[in-house]
């Protein structure tokens, strides 16, 4: 595929490599390296299962990133709808054949990987909607008839994921979708109407929430409510980050994570561990890396001319930023615990796959910015 | 497919992206601000919280301070004990382990049940104490099989050891802290650990705060589940303070042996310093059984025993003082100028007053006698007359002055203050007016009187030292050791005055002793009469006198009625020995020795022992002999200490 893609293009492989955004590429590599160290630390300073598996996944999906980058943007444009539908089918399959863990049915067993289609849907929905708004005229964007399809495309995966149940991922999928719709130029009033409907539905939604989800929200509002239960994670995470101080406790010296006070330390709370060991110096550096990445993707969006690429790059940059902000906000106790991984840093194959794919497509937009879509 | 209005679409997207970018900037600063606030501004607070998470302290008790006698002989010490703990987490199969241990140690099903309950109630890595006092053979059997007993941990620890059963009451005992202890004893808060034993009675209770020492702790790093990861630091704590008492263990032992198979008490006191040389209660009990928890059977034995072995009769046993009160009656009568000691009264064996017949202990009567003879022969009829003239309120005032009716020692929770009856006391506690007849009974120490052997000993000491107030003590503090250095000088000097008793008393007053008399001659009169009671024919304790030079003592017998004799019993001349045990009289004897140059006072009480002269005085004689024999050693020890 990679070969065929490069042959079809009038750019050769060398041209493509040179056309890459090296700042973005460097950021990915640096984050990757940081993630290896962080994972090594979560394994208690041993080259154990999580570290090994994370490094392998990083390299495998880093190849995916290159492959995605070298494929023409037009390829991604034309495959948007099949990709979306494919992931949707996977989501439906999860409902029937999915693996259940901690009360939530999210994974498909593919033998070499437990695939979490909801992670892929983050990219799939953006592709689908970018494609949609690329095709319709500016005048049609605000016609009710044309609002219907994007809403359906957004709501179906949202509901499928919410009912897994996985509120966090569903929320992040929804955010991606709304950003595309917003950027495409849908009038504010429709968002206002939607917001009103949402608010009026809130009581009903609350009645559908699982008890643990309700308690998470209440605990966020008052962490001292149940310091050893749901508030425990927020409290311990804040203690870990705060106790890191300016330069941190040092690599492998994060007592909070080392002594198991941190829950989910290799997935959702990896930033906590890193902040504890490397302090403000480390945590602000990681934040800076993500900000630079976001800005680079936005700048790709500024370069490209066609609506699909622009919508995709802007939306992906924003969604990527939201993933980072939600994860950090969560571990810093700014927002409720929703269960959102930190791109690239967190352990998790599907998330890594989705992020690498998303970044690859953005890079493809950069490489093929002068080629038109049809 | 390509949109013709791509340009305007692009512009709109760009405009909206700008808004999003602005929002992103706000979020970035929000996160950055939060990082600054947590990691820089509040970092100190979170570091503390993190350490609080990380470190946990395990407290352990240091060994209790020892309690020794005057010569440094240990009365309460510590011994190595062999214990068995199990750590459930370390055993592959806890049931098999319990089964094996049950066979090796012959554990009862009840004990097994308790162990199981304990295991369930705590974390799997916390040790469960299977036994805190294994015998050596049990301990070696455990060690023999140890390689098969995963999770079992033999532990060598220290526990309280009492080697001197004769001092069981004065020392008291330790036991596990009860809920009540934890509530009532403020000091236990920072001193308690799982292995702490707290003082329950006697000196163990009085000195508990200091004897306990300061708990040590081991600081461990623990994980989120509370499991110890590694030891960070260790603080050995501070061993409890050792105490030296005024007791002489050899006298304790002798007294205890003399009281064997009897129920009663012996108290010996230095009449100048107030040092308690002996304080023995009988029957004794083994305080060691409380250290590791007494079993029900032994507890019931102690509780249901006729002679109440757990009671320290020296300070918690209350008895009517009987004739021993007569010395005070004389002092009171003379001090108040209500009686001329030359007054002669004829005793016919009884007198009739206020329509009631009052008997003398000597049925046929003593004949004519003056006050000295009356006290010497303990004539009841004479003292009916003394009491009648004196009145109860004046007598009770004198009695209180000499230490009756109030606690003698500080900090002994079991000590009781007794009763010194008078008119207002009766009105208040019994709610009735005082009858004149009761004054007569009070004059011979019967009726409402309640006093402890220690009070009687103090009373005698304060007569023997010439009528000066002393404060009895049992603990030799560092601060108090030179309080009596003047006294030692005095005792040296007094040899020069040996015959001039009055000037000796003046000498004592120099040392800021508070006098209890108006006229020292009155005290001297009593001392002289008591000499007669022991050393002249006709005296009540003549049979128990010591004649060797320097060992001559003076004392007063007493017999306190448990049940009043009925007229019929009197007619039948029923002897005390023929009465049921519970109805027999208590025998009392108080004395001071040596008569010349006195140093010690003693009180002996034998419950239901019959008459004081028959059963109490002979014991006192033997104890006095021992005390006086050991006196030079005690003096050299004291002087050596001061030098």
Largest interface: A-B, 54 and 43 residues
Tell me which oligomeric state these chains represent.
heterodimer
> pLDDT average of chain B, as an integer?
87
Largest sheet of chain B: 5 strands, mixed
Give the mean pLDDT of chain A. Answer: 88
Give the CATH class of the largest domain in chain B: Alpha Beta
Number of helices of chain A: 15
The number of E-state strands of chain B comes to 19
Helix proportion of residues of chain B, in percent? Answer: 40-55%
Q: What is the general shape of chain A?
A: globular
Distance between the termini of chain B: 117 Å
CATH fourth-tier homologous superfamily of the largest domain in chain B: DD-peptidase/beta-lactamase superfamily
- CA radius of gyration of chain A: 21 Å
Structural class of chain B: alpha+beta
Shape of chain B: elongated
What is the percentage of strand-forming residues of chain A? Answer: under 5%
Radius of gyration of chain B: 36 Å
């Amino acid at each position: 595929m990679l070969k065929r893609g490069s042959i079809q293009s009038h750019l050769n492989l060398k041209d493509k490599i040179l056309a890459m955004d090296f700042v973005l590429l460097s950021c990915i590599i640096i984050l990757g390296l940081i993630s290896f160290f962080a994972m090594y630390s979560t394994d208690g300073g041993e080259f154990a299962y999580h570290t090994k598996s994370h490094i392998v996944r990083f390299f495998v999906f880093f190849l995916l990133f290159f492959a995605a980058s070298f494929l023409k943007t037009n390829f991604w444009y034309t495959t948007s709808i099949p990709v979306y539908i494919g992931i949707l089918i996977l989501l439906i399959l999860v409902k029937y054949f999915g693996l259940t863990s901690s009360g939530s049915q999210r994974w498909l067993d593919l033998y070499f990987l437990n695939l979490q289609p909801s992670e892929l849907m983050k990219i799939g929905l953006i592709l689908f909607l970018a494609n949609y708004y690329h095709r319709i005229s500016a005048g049609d964007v605000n016609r009710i008839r044309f609002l219907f399809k994007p809403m359906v495309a957004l709501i179906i995966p949202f509901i499928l994921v919410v009912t897994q149940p996985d509120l966090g991922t569903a929320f992040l999928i929804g955010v991606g979708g709304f950003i595309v719709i917003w950027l495409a130029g849908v009038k504010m009033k429709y968002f206002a109407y939607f917001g009103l409907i949402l608010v009026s539905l809130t009581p009903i939604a609350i009645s559908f929430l699982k008890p643990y989800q309700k308690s998470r929200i209440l605990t966020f509002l008052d962490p001292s409510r149940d310091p050893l239960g749901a508030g425990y994670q927020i409290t311990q995470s804040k203690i870990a980050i705060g106790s890191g101080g300016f330069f941190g406790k040092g690599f492998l010296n994060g007592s909070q994570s080392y002594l198991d006070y941190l829950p989910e330390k290799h997935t959702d709370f990896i930033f906590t561990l890193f902040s504890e060991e490397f302090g403000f110096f480390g945590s602000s550096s990681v934040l800076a890396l993500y900000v630079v990445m976001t800005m680079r993707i936005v700048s790709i969006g500024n370069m490209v001319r066609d609506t699909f690429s622009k919508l995709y790059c802007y939306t992906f940059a924003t969604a990527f930023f939201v993933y980072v902000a939600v994860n950090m906000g969560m571990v810093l106790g700014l927002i409720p615990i929703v269960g959102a991984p930190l791109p690239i840093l967190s352990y998790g194959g599907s998330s890594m796959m989705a992020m690498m794919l998303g970044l690859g497509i953005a890079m493809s937009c950069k490489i093929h910015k002068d080629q038109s879509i049809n | 497919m390509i949109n013709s209005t791509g340009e305007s679409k692009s512009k709109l997207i760009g405009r909206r992206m700008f808004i999003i970018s602005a929002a992103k900037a706000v979020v970035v600063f929000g996160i950055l601000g939060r990082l600054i606030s947590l990691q820089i501004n509040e970092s100190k607070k979170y570091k503390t919280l993190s350490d609080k998470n990380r470190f946990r302290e395990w407290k352990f008790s240091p060994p209790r301070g020892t309690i020794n006698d005057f010569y440094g002989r240990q009365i309460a010490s510590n011994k190595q004990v062999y214990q068995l703990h199990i750590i459930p987490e370390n055993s592959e199969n806890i049931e098999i382990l319990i089964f094996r241990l049950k066979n090796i140690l012959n554990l009862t099903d009840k004990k097994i049940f308790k162990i199981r309950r304990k295991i369930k109630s705590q974390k799997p890595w916390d040790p469960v104490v299977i036994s805190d006092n294994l015998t050596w053979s049990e301990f070696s059997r455990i060690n023999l099989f140890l390689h098969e007993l995963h999770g079992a941990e033999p532990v060598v620890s220290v526990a309280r050891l009492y080697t001197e059963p004769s001092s069981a009451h004065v020392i008291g005992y330790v036991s596990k802290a009860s809920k009540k202890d934890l509530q009532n004893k403020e000091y236990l808060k920072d001193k308690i650990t799982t292995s702490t034993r707290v003082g329950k009675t006697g000196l163990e209770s009085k000195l508990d705060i200091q004897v306990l020492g300061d708990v040590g702790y081991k600081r461990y790093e623990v994980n989120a589940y509370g499991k110890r990861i590694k030891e960070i630091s260790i603080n050995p704590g501070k061993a409890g303070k050792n105490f030296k008492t005024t007791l002489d263990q050899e006298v304790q032992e002798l007294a205890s042996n003399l009281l064997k198979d009897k129920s009663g008490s012996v108290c010996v006191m230095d009449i100048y310093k107030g040092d308690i040389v002996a304080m023995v209660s009988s029957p004794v009990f083994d305080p060691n059984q409380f250290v590791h928890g007494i079993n029900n059977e032994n507890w019931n034995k102690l509780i249901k025993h006729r002679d109440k072995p757990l009671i320290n009769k020296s300070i918690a046993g209350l008895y009517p003082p009987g004739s021993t009160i007569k010395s005070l009656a004389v002092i009171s009568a003379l001090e108040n100028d209500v009686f001329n000691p030359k007054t002669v009264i004829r005793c016919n064996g009884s007198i009739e007053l206020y329509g009631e017949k009052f008997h003398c202990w000597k049925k046929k009567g003593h004949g004519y006698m003056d006050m000295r003879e009356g006290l010497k022969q303990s004539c009841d009829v004479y003292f009916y007359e003394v009491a009648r003239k004196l009145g109860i309120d004046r007598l009770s005032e004198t009695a209180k002055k000499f230490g009756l009716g109030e606690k003698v020692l500080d900090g002994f929770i079991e000590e009781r203050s007794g009763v010194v009856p008078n008119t207002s006391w009766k009105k208040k506690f019994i709610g009735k007016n005082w009858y004149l007849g009761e004054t007569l009974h009070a004059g011979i120490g019967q009726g409402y009187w309640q006093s402890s052997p220690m009070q009687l000993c103090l009373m005698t000491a304060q007569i023997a030292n010439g009528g000066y107030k002393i404060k009895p003590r049992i603990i030799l503090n560092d601060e108090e050791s030179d309080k009596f250095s003047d006294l030692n000088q005095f005792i040296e000097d007094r040899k020069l005055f040996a015959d001039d008793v009055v000037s000796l008393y003046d000498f004592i007053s120099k040392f800021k002793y508070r006098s209890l008399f108006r006229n020292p001659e009155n005290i001297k009169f009593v001392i002289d009469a008591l000499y007669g009671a022991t050393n002249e024919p006709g005296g009540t304790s003549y049979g128990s006198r010591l004649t060797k030079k320097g060992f001559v003592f003076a004392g007063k017998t007493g017999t306190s009625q448990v049940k009043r004799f009925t007229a019929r019993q009197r007619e039948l001349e029923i002897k005390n020995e023929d009465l049921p045990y519970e109805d027999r009289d208590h025998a009392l004897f108080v004395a001071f020795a040596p008569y010349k140059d006195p140093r010690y006072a003693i009180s002996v009480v034998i419950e239901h022992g019959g008459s004081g002269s028959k059963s109490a005085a002979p014991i006192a004689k033997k104890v006095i002999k021992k005390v006086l024999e050991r006196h030079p050693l005690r003096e050299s020890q004291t002087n050596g200490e001061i030098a």
